[in-house]
Design brief:
single chain; mainly alpha; Rna Polymerase Sigma Factor, Chain: A; Arc Repressor Mutant, subunit A; 9 helices; disordered C terminus
Length: 173
C-alpha cells in the first residue's frame, strides 16, 4: 500500500503544508493507516481522508505555537534575551561535572524550572507527568545536584531545606 500510494499522499501534503513538514505528514498518515485501515475500503481515498486530518492537526499545532509565541512576546517584550543558563553551566567545569552526574530525567526537571523558567505545575505538563510526580523528580534532582557539588568541593552536603539554592546556582553561575 505504501509503495502504491506514498507518492500521491506526498503530493497531497506538499500542496498543503510547508516543505519541512511533508515527510512528517506522510509518515503519520501511513502510521495511522497501518493501525486502522478498513479491510473493505479502497485505500487511496481513505488515505486522503487520513492525510486531511493529519494536515489539519499540523495546522492547529502551528497556530497554537504562533499564538503562544505572540503571547510570550507581548507579555515579556522582545527585548534582549537573557543569558542562556546552559552557557553558564558549560562555563563552570565543577557545575558542569555535577550536572552530568544527574540522570536525564533529573537534568530535564532542573532545565524546565531553572532554564526555561516554568512553574512546577507547568513543568509537570511539559514533562508529561502529574504535578506531584514532577515535584518528587525536582526534589530528587536538586538533592542529587547538591550532593554532587558537595562531593566535588569536598564540603558536606547541604541540608535538604537548602536544596532550593542548588537550582539558583544554575542562574548565578
Amino acid at each position: 500500500m505504501y509503495e502504491r500510494h506514498a507518492a500521491a499522499i506526498r503530493a497531497y501534503a506538499a500542496r498543503r503544508v510547508e516543505a519541512s513538514a511533508v515527510d512528517d505528514v506522510v509518515a503519520e498518515t501511513f502510521a495511522i493507516a497501518w493501525r486502522r485501515l478498513p479491510s473493505q475500503a479502497e485505500p487511496l481515498p481513505w488515505l486522503y481522508g487520513v492525510a486531511r486530518r493529519v494536515v489539519h492537526g499540523h495546522r492547529r499545532g502551528q497556530a497554537r505555537r504562533a499564538a503562544l509565541t505572540a503571547r510570550l512576546i507581548s507579555r515579556h517584550g522582545a527585548g534582549p534575551a537573557p543569558p542562556d543558563p546552559a552557557d553558564l553551566i558549560e562555563g563552570d567545569p565543577r557545575l558542569s561535572r555535577a550536572f552530568s552526574t544527574l540522570s536525564e530525567v533529573e537534568r530535564e526537571a532542573i532545565r524546565l524550572v531553572a532554564w526555561e523558567g516554568l512553574a512546577s505545575d507547568e513543568a509537570a505538563v511539559a514533562a508529561g507527568c502529574s504535578p506531584a510526580t514532577f515535584a518528587v523528580r525536582l526534589s530528587r534532582a536538586r538533592a542529587h545536584l547538591a550532593r554532587s557539588l558537595a562531593a566535588l568541593s569536598d564540603a558536606p552536603p547541604p541540608r535538604p531545606a537548602s536544596s532550593l539554592a542548588t537550582v539558583e546556582i544554575c542562574h548565578d553561575h
